Amino acid sequence: MIPVLRDTSQLSELLATLQPEVTLGSCEVVVVNGDGADYSIEDLRDRYPFAQWVTSESGRGQQMNAGAAVARGRWLLFLHADVRLDQRWKTIIQEADARSVVVGGAFALSIDSSHWAARVIEKGVEARVRWFRLPYGDQAFFVRRNAFDRLGGYAALPLMEDVDLIRRLGSVGDLWFPAVPVYVSARRWEKDGWWFRTASNLCLAVLYFLGVSPRRLASWYYGTTGVAVQSSPRTRYDITENTAVVVIIPALNEENAVGQVIAEIPEGIDEVIVVDNGSTDGTVERAREAGATVVTELARGYGNACLRGLSKARSVGDVVVVFLDADRSDFPHEMVALIEPICEGRADLVLGDRGASGRPWHARAGTELCVYLINQLWGTAYRDLGPFRAIRRSAIDQLMMQDRTWGWTIEMQIKAAEAGLVICEVPVRQRARVGQSKISGTMTGAVKAGTRMLYTIWCLWRTKQKRVL
User: Which end of the chain is less enclosed by CB atoms within 10 A, N or C?
Assistant: First the structure.
């Protein structure tokens, strides 16, 4: 069983290594996709027809249960998409099968990196497994099928589902942890920092055993506890609703990215407006070549650019307005998930929740501080302040937006809450932007933007009574 959530590249490499085993008839492979809107996985279906492909709600526990439901084997092997098995893995399963008292186990962690920190972490994991009998899910759990069914499978937990299962397994039989390795990608440690990642994992485990709920832990770990609003199969990456959609893209010196961003916007959009905020490179030319309408706003500031784009939109009626950055840090086709709740009458404002990944620590910390203050002062339950968002034109006109700089997103969310708009947040992916960020790319930029955001919160709180009366 391989649960995946937007892991196309890692999954492709894993399936290539498993294909010979399936050809020999020694195993079956079940891939469980937790994102029905991720159509990149369809290419893998064609390339690897030997696998069974299942779609379920997102969440590793739910996905692995869905895979186990269609699997026929006497043993279940649960793999993350970024692991690779040692060639002796079948021998281990056969030996475990011969030991009637063994109900499950896990392989030894081997991080695919030559960095010295990887060896230290491996030793620490080895000690944890030896002393506490506590492997994690990336160590490739193998579980006897009848024991798995007896326990009811994985618990539907947003985090720590692996720890929960291995502890319950130990109560119904013996666990075996052979020295044969499973090779795990180092990408998570390299991305987050070797010691930060390790310390975070340790803290989460300690908090879990102290009684902190997995839901709260998941909100800290992932930056969100939400479930994606998935686009329906009929729309895929096309916008086919009758409601007009306008995309506004503020841009400042983004010549290397803006053309790609426009090219990735779904079919069916009525207007794409790029607001040039005083670029000195080829941003304007690239945007026009890509087919966008280009308008100019010489007064610097994100809010200024957004307001200019709104004023230049030609579509009439209560259109859906999407705000999208020009740096290609977002995935434009995911605007389908932002637009659909509005077109279906389920929301007035839909925010893209970036989670905790893909951004520098100081950017995440600043966002979390601002979100915390807003939630405390206004009684909201926001998770992010991401600029990738969609809103009804009538709703944004009702808010009478004033901020001209980086307080724009904060002002919109605060005023939307005050106005009683129906608001929802849906997870969106992030990737490395093209070029250096003007905010989080430097500490100076981050401090300036953060100061402006905090000032905006203070000003809106100070004037709240005037607006709500």
Answer: C
